[in-house]
């Protein structure tokens, strides 16, 4: 097993597949008892699905993770019916589940209201407005599998899934055998299950929708981690296309993902070097490892437009042969280790966020009480 440093976080930051947010509807406006005026209702908070949006963007743009709709206007002599407060929209990626602390709230259609605004004060409420609904919600990206296999056609992704799991995907010596994702389950001795998605082969230019293009890349978005698969001896897609070594294949795959959506590269990644049963495989593996340790030095092997902005580093580089079974059980434990590590980090992060939210709330309550006290005395 080769441990190369942590995945490169310089530019991309962590991939975000779930997010906890505080949402509050706007308060209603005061009624006007003297003239029977009615305060405006507070605005509502909505989650709205938007193409190309990511949870990470929400996190970066709104580090406080608080979304409060506007309050309704008070009723006044000039406007007896106070204006309604504006709604607040949280633009979120398509394909998420919205969960509140009270239970599940599955997205139906494209918008879902997550916090209702309070009602304006009126005759029926002795002209007192009500507060907007306040709660924590969680946005979860709908994942198809824990791990997604990423590789060029014929690298042996389907063969690998067969060797690892109970799945029986189609395998053939021609490219594009796999046309839609197939999910295999890896079962461990302690009955833990990990799902791996066999995805169609990626080709150069996929980010421009060549080959299975975007269809493929969409699936990659829906996995927690990436399992790159390359043929240790390299590959050539067709007689007129250039031959690509294993190192070039890794960089080209990275570049395709980067051009499509660079956040994909902040997912933890493992590299499987397949077909270790072929002649000269050991020498080629040694060469690949050396190139991966210092990719900059070998970048002149690639055309300039295929050099990724940041070279991806892998949590594990695992040589295997999907055909003979060499290295498969080791790969299985590397996959487990990598996912377990992230699950532990996630538990810690959620705990920290909950504590922070509690602190924020108590600060707010304190300042609210202070404002109330000062308005009473003045
Ligand atoms: N020698 C050798 N051949 C392999 C190995 N793994 C897969 N192959 C062969 O490589 C060819 C392609 O295998 P697949 O598993 O269909 O490859 P794939 O990556 O799923 O291909 P696409 O679905 O077309 O993207 C088949 O002829 C396999 O028998 C291996 O470990 N050693
Ligand atoms: Mg396949």
Automatic annotation (TrEMBL):
Q: Which GO terms describe its molecular function?
A: GTP binding; GTPase activity; magnesium ion binding
List keywords of the entry alphabetically.
GTP-binding, Nucleotide-binding, Nucleus, Ribosome biogenesis
Q: Which Pfam families match?
A: GTP1_OBG, MMR_HSR1
Q: Does the keyword Glycoprotein apply?
A: no
**Location relative to the cell:** Nucleus, Nucleolus
Its Gene Ontology biological processes? ribosome biogenesis
Output the Gene3D superfamilies linked to this UniProt entry.
GTP1/OBG domain (2.70.210.12), P-loop containing nucleotide triphosphate hydrolases (3.40.50.300)
Q: Where is the OBG-type G domain?
A: 145-340
Protein name, please?
GTP-binding protein 10
InterPro entries reported in the protein's UniProt record? G_OBG (IPR031167), GTP-bd (IPR006073), GTP-bd_Obg/CgtA (IPR014100), GTP1_OBG_dom (IPR006169), GTP1_OBG_dom_sf (IPR036726), OBG_GTPase (IPR045086), P-loop_NTPase (IPR027417)
Broad class of the protein's primary localization: nucleus
Species of the source: Oreochromis niloticus
Q: Gene behind this chain?
A: GTPBP10
The record's family statement is:
Belongs to the TRAFAC class OBG-HflX-like GTPase superfamily. OBG GTPase family.
Among the entry's GO cellular component annotations, what is one? nucleolus
Q: Where does the record place the Obg domain? A: 13-144
């Amino acid at each position: 097993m080769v441990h190369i440093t942590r995945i490169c976080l310089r530019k991309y930051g962590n991939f975000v597949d779930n997010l906890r947010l505080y949402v509050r509807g706007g308060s209603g406006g005061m009624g006007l008892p003297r003239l029977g005026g009615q305060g405006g209702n507070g605005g509502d908070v909505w989650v709205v699905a938007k193409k190309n949006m990511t949870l990470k963007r929400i996190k970066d743009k709104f580090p406080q993770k608080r979304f409060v709709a506007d309050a309704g206007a008070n009723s006044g002599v000039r406007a007896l019916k106070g204006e309604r407060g504006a709604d607040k929209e949280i633009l979120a990626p398509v394909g998420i589940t919205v969960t509140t602390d009270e239970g599940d709230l599955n997205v139906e259609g494209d918008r879902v209201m997550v916090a209702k605004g309070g009602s304006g004060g009126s005759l029926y409420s002795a002209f007192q407005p009500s507060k907007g609904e306040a709660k924590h919600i969680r946005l979860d990206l709908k994942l198809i599998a824990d791990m997604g296999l990423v590789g060029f056609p014929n690298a042996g992704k389907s063969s690998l899934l067969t060797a690892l799991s109970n799945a029986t995907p189609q395998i053939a010596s021609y490219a594009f055998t796999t046309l839609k994702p197939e999910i295999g389950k890896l079962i461990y001795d302690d009955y833990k299950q990990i799902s791996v998605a066999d995805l169609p082969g990626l080709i150069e230019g996929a980010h421009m929708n060549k080959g299975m293009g975007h269809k493929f890349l969409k699936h990659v978005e829906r996995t927690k981690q990436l399992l790159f698969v390359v043929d240790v001896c390299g590959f050539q897609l067709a007689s007129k296309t250039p031959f690509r070594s294993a190192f070039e294949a890794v960089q080209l795959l990275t570049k395709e993902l980067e051009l499509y959506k660079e956040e994909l590269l902040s997912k933890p990644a493992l590299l499987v070097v397949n077909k270790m049963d072929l002649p000269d495989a050991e020498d080629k593996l040694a060469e690949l490892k050396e190139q991966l340790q210092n990719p900059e030095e070998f970048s002149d092997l690639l055309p300039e437009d295929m050099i990724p902005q940041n070279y991806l580093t892998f949590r594990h580089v695992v040589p295997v042969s999907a055909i003979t079974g060499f290295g498969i059980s080791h790969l299985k434990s590397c996959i487990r280790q990598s996912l377990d590590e992230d699950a532990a980090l996630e538990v810690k992060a959620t705990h920290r966020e909950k504590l922070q939210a509690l602190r924020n709330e108590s600060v707010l309550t304190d300042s609210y009480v202070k404002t109330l006290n000062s308005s009473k005395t003045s």
